[in-house]
Structures are given as C-alpha cells and as structure tokens.
Amino acid sequence: MSKRLTVPKTYKLYIGGKFPRSESGRIYPVTTAKGAFLANASRASRKDARDAVSAAQAAGRSWAGATPYNRGQVLYRVAEILEGRRAQFIDEISAQTQASASVASAEVDEAIDTWVWYAGWCDKFAQVAGNANPVAGPFFNISLPEPTGVVAIIAPQESALLGLVSAIAPALVTGNSVVAVASQQHPLSAISLSEALATSDVPGGVVNVLTGSPAEIAPWLASHPDVHGLDLVGAGEIDWVELQIAAAETLTRVLGPESAAAAPSLHRIAAFTETKTVWHTKSLL
C-alpha cells in the first residue's frame, strides 16, 4: 500500500460562534520548535478584530443576564469537553513546543483544573466581593460586583493552552464577554479550545479567538470604544505602555503584564468587575 499524503489544516478564527477565515485572506505557517511545518493559521486583520468586538458586545447582554448558577454550569460543561479531548490537546502541545508527553499532559490537566476552579466561583463570587454597607437612617445599602463588558485579552505568548485558559476563564465568571488574541507561536490549542466552546453551551460570541500578530491586533483593540476592559497579561514583548495610553482615551480598564499569576486568583475575577451600590428603604411596618 502506498503511503498516504498528509492533509495540512488551516486553522480559522473563532468569531460569533463561527469559524471564518480572515477577511484579509492572510495565513501564516505554524511550525515546531525545530522548524517543521504543522499547519496554517489565519492572520487576523483590523476588520476581524472589529467583527469580534461586535460579536462580543451582542452576546454579552444575555451572558451577563444569565444567573450565576447557570454560568457556572455552562463553564463546567466546557471543562467536561476539554477532558474528553485531553489526548488531542496533549498531542498539539507536544507538537508545537516539543515538550514531552508528560509535560504536555501536566499543562492540559492544569488548564482543565483551572477552568473548573473558575466555574465554581460563578455563584459564589458576589458573596465574597459584595457587602452590605453600614448607613445612618432607615435604609439598606448593598454593593454588588457586575461585569465590565467586553474584555480584550492578549494571551500569554509562551503558553499553548494554560495561559489562554487562565486569562479567559476569570473574565467569564461574572458575565463579561471576551475577545482573545492567542499565542502567535502556539495558536493551535487556542482554536481547538474554540472548537470545544463551539460545541458547549457557551453562547456564540461570548468568547472570540483571534490568531495572528498581537503587536498588530492589540492597538486596534486597545483603542476600540466598545472594549471596556483590556488584559495585557501576554503583552510583555510589545509596547504595552502605548496600549495603556490608547485605552485611557476611552476610559478602558487595564490589567497590565505584571498581572500574570501562577495560580487561579480571585484578583483576576475582580479585575473586570464594576461595583453597583443599591439603596433601599427599610419597611416601617
């Protein structure tokens, strides 16, 4: 029997629950650490970034309006799908990074555990971050965390999966929607994560994943008036100070590259929440 030819895959973007090619038609090769060809990935353009923000904005309303318990169940379902595709992620990480199977396996396991950890906080975070405030007079004064809105994320560039999960998951806990720019060097796991999201109960548009050059895409997201939060956790290799300046023009909340955490953190959930305070009179009866 003759040897079969390989069928190279072109990984697409994930926008609005669909997998379009970049409107620019651009792609770039993804290679192993030794330079061997693995696949092609789409190189997102400015219009792709705008489309992703529009999709996130449209989907964010229903996601923010879901009950915290429901969001937790939806996110836990994503973890179940990741567990079922565990072998695929291990193979992809090993191929992209040349890591051993045991190292890749450890990263996948930690990514799944991280996703489960954040899913569990969906219906608990308000009790930790909210409070009843002491006031003078016959009133209740209660403060509660609410989602910021659309959060743009520059994912850690050295990580194939764990860094992306560690940035996306906490933003989703309180009802934010996300536009994430994946690792340029290791994008395959990001699109495979998108495939898991597409087959889960996460509404299309709540998470959008762009591949390509973070240095090219980040300025457009930072200055976009409909982006309400900017996570620069993976922007250490680009001019992130300029990104902060651009974000300031639209009063966008920014989490800098120094925010990278080795373990899941409530700080990352709180980073993209707003505090809403409600006054209510006490009954005189």
Automatic annotation (TrEMBL):
Keywords from the UniProt entry: Oxidoreductase
Gene3D superfamilies (UniProt xref): Aldehyde Dehydrogenase, Chain A, domain 1
SUPFAM superfamilies: ALDH-like (SSF53720)
Protein name: Aldehyde dehydrogenase family protein
Keyword Oxidoreductase found: yes
InterPro entries with a match to the protein in the record: Ald_DH/histidinol_DH, Ald_DH_N, Aldehyde_DH_dom
Lineage: superkingdom: Bacteria
Signal among keywords: no
The organism's taxonomic lineage, starting at the top: Bacteria, Bacillati, Actinomycetota, Actinomycetes, Micrococcales
Domain Aldehyde dehydrogenase: 25-238
